[in-house]
């Protein structure tokens, strides 16, 4: 008797392995979440929307697109929202790449990238980061072949922290053929303080083959509601909008709009995380750790084979080890950050 056989690409996708469960939310420095409770106004708006849960959401996501279009100075048809920017990433890769095609990506970078590529049947072409944990954009440009359909750029890079500079991105984009889509993932853009950081939006305005990914999961603190978006040229976005209908709930849409309306509160929370990030990085460096400059809400310890040991030393705080590569520590409450700094005070 035969059984249903999945496509080879699906059978080859490695299972997603979540990190170990955290002792408590306060001690969970493993998922780059915002450590603050929801803003009262955002929570009230979302709670009110729950009262309409018998209704389908607005499938056109019109109210959010109008607000974002004004905010970003683009047209509403240049936007595609999804259940997190990971959803938009999956749809983007699937829209432009399939079996026989190649997708160039930096590595080590975001764990979802190889999965998003694998499900399409396209071939991932990982390009190692440089020694300083930044993208090797020259090597990425050199990795582009006639099969390349998509290139992923992550700035700041998760899990290592550095940004791509504006000059480096511009030089890179001049080397990418105009039929190759460049995805600039800006999940942590609100935390960037580097004066020469690249702007994905500026690059997108200058070139039709650039798509920017943004999310409400990090600075806006809405990770559990699952909402993020892509911004690009109309033609690219038309393809990316091919999605499961009604994916983004009205609760998520309303909370996102409310959060955009509380810009000042959001910014002051992000400022607090940035100050903590710089404090933690400085403390770890003075304890002898190598810490690349982070422009996001985490710091990276490139400890290679010692990753699992270093993560164990941080317990009861959960951090995120990448076996054989390093450890990513999310910036949380000062008390939790202090526990990590104390645990690692002796150096490697
Ligand atoms: C967290 C993250 C995202 C966004 O995730 P969603 O919650 O799906 O919006 C996207 N890219 C990177 C690099 C991230 O770290």
What does this structure look like?
The structure is a single chain. The protein has helices spanning 8-11, 40-50, 62-72, 85-96, 112-118, 137-142, 166-175, 200-206, 234-240, 250-261, 263-286, 307-313, 334-343, and strands at residues 79-82, 102-107, 123-128, 148-154, 181-185, 210-215, 228-231, 298-301, 320-322, 326-330. Helices cover 37% and strands 14% of the residues. The protein starts with 7 loop residues before the first helix and ends in a 5-residue tail after the last helix. The model has no long low-confidence stretch (mean pLDDT 97). It has 348 residues and is of the alpha/beta class. The chain has two domains: 8-30 and 264-343, Alpha-Beta Complex (Aspartate Aminotransferase, domain 1); 42-260, Aspartate Aminotransferase, domain 2 (3-Layer(aba) Sandwich). It is globular and about 55 Å long. Helix 3 packs parallel to helix 10, helix 4 (85-96) runs parallel beside helix 5 (112-118) and helix 11 (263-286) packs parallel to helix 13. The strands form two sheets. Strands 1-7-6-5-4-2-3 form a seven-stranded mixed sheet, sandwiched between helices. Strands 8-10-9 form a three-stranded antiparallel sheet, with helices on one face. It binds pyridoxal-5'-phosphate (PLP). Pyridoxal-5'-phosphate binds next to helix 4.
